[in-house]
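Revision sheet: structure tokens.
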Amino acid sequence: MLPLLITLLLGLLAACERPSSAETTLAQLPANAAAPAINEAAATPTLANTAVATPFLAETATAVPPTPASSATPFLPETDLPPCGQLLPNLPQNTTPTVTSLVPDPAVLAAVTVAVPEAARPAWEYLLENPGSVGLVAYRVGDETNGIYHNADMQMPLASVVKIIHLVAYVEAVAAGQLDPTSYVTVDTLNSYYLPGYDLGAHNRALAELEASGLVLPSPDRVRLEDVPWMMMRHSTNASMDYLHTLLGQTMIEETAVALNLTQQTAPCTFLGQFLAMSNQTRQGRSDRAAIQAYLDNPASYGTEVVQLAEAYTSDPNFREAEQTWHQDERRPSSQDQRFFSHNLNAHGTPREYAALMARIAQNGLSNPESSFLARRYLEWPMIFPANQERFSNLGYKNGSLPGILNTAYYVYPIGEVTPTVVILFFRDLPGSTYREWRSSLAHDELARWLLDNPDALSLLRAALMPAS
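Predicted:
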């Protein structure tokens, strides 16, 4: 049985919700967060046709959006930046589960109940009782036939798991010579993307860790560009993702998703723009729910306004100060409106496609060795922990959290193995009490980890989830 390591090593859940009275206390982490060199011997590529050219899609026509209806957020300035939704839709189309009930064989169910670690049992029991709100794909690469595919093709909100796309876009741009990782970004610039109270303090913790490591240079305070994706992956800071999103551009982010064969991906938009689209100072009394519904009725208006709001916040200090005051005065969206927004307008993708993406990265399947190495270097930050080094030669990880949404994406090479195992586990529609409890206990992550290097667990859970004959 897999020891309960996750409480020690993953105190970081994707930071996409404002703190509440039930906020998790995050574990203190080592100051030196540099990922170890990748063990190439344990990562033999097997994919033949996985080259990803520096993303561009000359043959792809950008759809012409419909004329926007009345604005959900009036009085926003015009912008020259392209709206969110250049190549990808802003709304998902396939959110209906294929599996809505489970009737496991009693003997198999009993065996799973005995085998599942106690810390993972709440997640397993929730899956049994609410199978339509869970997506799970798990397999050992090369043995996909014997994998688990539960609601594998249902589009589900990704929360911070979407940051993997931004990571790939960044490393491809670096490998192509389009970005200089040794250039500097001022802390003031990064702060201009930060909306206090919406990331559980991740932004400030990341900067504090960099400063403690001597990586923040003074006059003006600045960090190297290569530390920004580290902030995004290690601490899941939204400000760092949004900075990279703007630096690379909306079109390149969407082109990257298309080049990665994420055919069910909806358009990634900045988290800053999403949070401001939920609620902001300019609506003059109009309800947040009505504004969100207006976006659903006219997705093109959402694609435009989420960019306008983010640009106004980052470029106009007066607007930024007013927004910070607005949100600090507890005029944030209600938890119900946050859930409604996140379950409908957050970027969506499918467990099957994200499993393939993690397998691709794990096997050095990006456009060239440099981009593959860099992507893995950032994703494999949990390998700094001795507990992981004892079990795995490599472990790549990203999680995600929004109200009612908890996601986990893994690839691992167990010690001595030359092919990886991938596990994608997505939960949506979690009750508030369950969501808050799992934010602390990480029951969902414990279930994923049980599957990672335990072939018996994989086959046992697969048998329990098989449709009744």
